[in-house]
Amino acid sequence: VAKVISQNNIRHLFHKSENIDAFFRSYWAAFITLGCNAGCSYCIQGNAGQAKYNLVPGKDWVEALNAIENRSQKRFFRPARSKKLTIIGGEPGLHPDFFYIVNNLDNSWLITVDTNLAAPIFKEPETFLKQLKRMQKIKFHVSYHPSTMDAEIFINRVKALQKNGLKIKRLFIVAYPPDNLSKINQLQKIFAKEALKTELLRYMGFYKDELYPKDTSDLKANYADDGVKDYKLFQNACGQKKRNNVSCRLRKILIAPDGRIYNCHYKLYIRSDNFYGNLFDESSSSIIARDYFLC
């Protein structure tokens, strides 16, 4: 049985002889599959040399995650804070047990599903919502990738899902290609005419041999926060002109499709052997780094 035990604002996860030591408010994400049918040329997972993971059945995911106890944090004069969990991929809707997982995770989890609506399960919104039994403590973050789906098809899916009660909390448009923001702004206007409020996801990476974002001249656009505070430093850090050891701090619990636990997205994408144990392995033990570590 897995447990979360309070100690000095830290939570410990024990799964029999396994334990994962991390802050309660760390970002938790379950990458139930890295499979994706969108085929974006700029996908960070594909460009990292997408690792091959065996899929874990939904029943195992549900049993392991629901075994984590005390997934709430008491607060003075306010309701207790629930533990947040993001269901993500790849495209999580491609996992054959997607509905089983989201329907059977108990209500102690506050779930966010990150999706691009490209999976076949979204083609018939009414059928999708008949299979989605969980409507409380779940929200969807939906991203539109202009190079992979016609905008009209995507908009119709979003509106049909919303009409039938699906909570789409945030709707993103990926700013691609990054050298043609006028095209992206035109897309935003199309969405706005359909009463759909969108945020732009800034393209971050190489395009035509240039690293984006290159400057802050377009910061007035409605971009979601990308975490970058200094774009000149971003260019220096991610320009791939030289290799350096760096100090990194990532307070994340990233669970790979096979249960491996990472605190770094890149390591998960390449299935690095530098991981912190396995959610489904009762014999593993790990401590997630709280301070800076060398990477």
Description:
The chain is an alpha/beta fold and 295 residues long. Helices cover 22% and strands 27% of the residues. It contains 8 helices and 17 strands. It has helices at 44-47, 58-66, 98-104, 125-131, 151-163, 181-193, 231-238, 265-269; strands spanning 2-7, 10-15, 18-23, 27-31, 72-75, 78-88, 109-115, 138-144, 168-174, 199-201, 205-207, 210-212, 247-248, 252-255, 261-262, 286-287, 293-294. Strands 4, 5, 6, 7, 8, 9, 10, 14 and 15 form a 9-stranded mixed β-sheet that branches. It has a 4-stranded mixed β-sheet with strand order 1-2-3-16, with helices on one face. Strands 11-12 form a two-stranded antiparallel ribbon. Strand 14 (252-255) and strand 15 (261-262) form a beta hairpin. Helix 2 packs parallel to helix 3. Residues 1-19 have low confidence and may be disordered.
